[in-house]
Amino acid sequence: MSSELIFSVFIASIAAGTPFVFAALGETVTEKSGVLNLGAEGMMAVGAIIGFIVTFYSHNTLLGVLAGGLAGMLFSLLFAVVTLHFYASQVAAGLALAILGVGLAAFLGKPFESAILPPVPTSPIPILSEIPFFGPVFFNQQWIVYLSWVLFFALVWFFNKTKTGLVVKAIGESPTAADSLGYSVLKYRYFATLFGGALSGMGGTYLSVFYTPLWVEGMVAGRGWIGLALVVFASWKPTRVMLGAYLFGGVMITQLFLQASGLKMNVPGQFLSSLPYVATILVLVMISRNKLVIKMNSPVSLGKPFLARH
User: Fold this and answer.
1) How does DSSP classify residue 113?
2) Domain count along the chain
């Protein structure tokens, strides 16, 4: 590849990795509390269409992001009620949420399939954006990319420096012990689940409003599932989530550049398109082989219902 092409891949990888950042960070918070929500795909799809509709009529991207986040939050509330109050299987409820969200988004999006939004310009940060190579790559992005970084640093601080963050982690490890100390396990799990849903919805809005400013049925295209895999890949650590998100974003964008560059390769385009998903499977297989890593880092109570005291 030429140096210009490599430079373009780096810039595009940040944009392509951003929806993974939102979805994976949100799921990390949810799973840290011991709740396993597999509905990220559905929440992203609902967030994408609701965010698009609100932006289309309001011409305000901030309102679109807030609406998409709210849509994801309300969807996750449905999951939380079913699993935390009625003790339904978190795996089954999450899968149902994913299917419901994708179908609902397709239904709501039918009237908007020909609608297009104006491209959202980048917001270069003065001085920093002028740094050779790193400036255009990191500091000449759309404002929502900077928001994802703010959320990342806020979550690192939250889990390591605040009492509430430590309580959330403690609930994920031993909800019975936390309950005996007087902490409301259900309340913390509700908030964690709703926060995770909001971030997934915002990640979907990023796709339809910022990344490709139009609505197309199925545009989430498995990114929610990859976001779930990223949490395991990152061993439930926000810093690794960020690195993994941009790694997968780079894999996804590289195959597009390879197809568009006209390089002479005896490789079918369908194989290149499958690379991000093949990479996801390979990473999960490699991680699953080391059961000690998973056991040491995954929340002990993940996916297990908790019967609150009455």
Assistant:
1) T
2) 1
